[in-house]
Sequence to fold (299 residues):
Amino acid sequence: MITGANGGIGKDTARQFALLTETEKVYLACRNQLKAEAAKKDLEEATGRKIFETVLMDVSDLDSVRRAVAGLAEPIEGLVMNAGGMGGGNPGVKTKDGVTQMVATNLLGHVVLLDELLKAGKLTKAAVYAGSEAARGVAVMGMARPKLKSFSVEEFASVVDGSFFKKFDPMEVYGYVKLMGSFWMSSIARKYPEVRILTISPGGTAGTAVMNDLPPFMKSMFKYVAMPMMSTLGVFHALEVGAKRFVDALNDTQYKSGKFYASKRNVSGKIVDQGGIFSAVDNPQYQDNASEALHRFIS
Fold:
């Protein structure tokens, strides 16, 4: 199952899985049924296989996530939690669950999705969360490393509800949210050792839709200035490369459970365990604190 599978990295991840002969079914989890059906048709034509099934799921709506899991007739072997982005036109506005739109679209829905699948015994082998190098800072893109003081439950909760930030800058907040995501995944991995659970960044990927919901000026600057420049300089890689990171992480057991993998330098190239770059990501207490903070907002 792949969330956010109707376009960008999610769609190409589905395509690459379908090209593996051992893949029997690919669930396309999308919030828009029309876009999901269009993606299914495109993928069937591209791969020559009719193994795709659409699942209506809006990760920013926890009830929608629960309905989708309940509707699964059989367990899945692998999960790619790819849906996300910059949180729409109002990323700092709170949802009914008390979290910012940024957290809702990138993280909280995936927390519920993974929890529900594991509790129901409907995930049998591996789960991958779409991380980001922004979680450890990317100097070439002007993204500083998240600056947390205590890594406490309360501090993480303030990130989730947005009160941590004096000014809600989506480009800054994104790094904090993705860092929390890696912490949460590592915490869950220790509770379910029978399933391989890890975070991997698709890296700087040309053609992704992650920046599409930035404010118009920032979107234009990223799409027409920053993205082409980064691609020309070799800082960004092709869509297929980013998607392949997900496929490899899900299938290759060299990627260890509980770890956070991303580019060694900048946002492309060799992939390494981020614990060697930012030691905080390997701290079990920080991991559990982040998970506890997130679960405070789930009812």
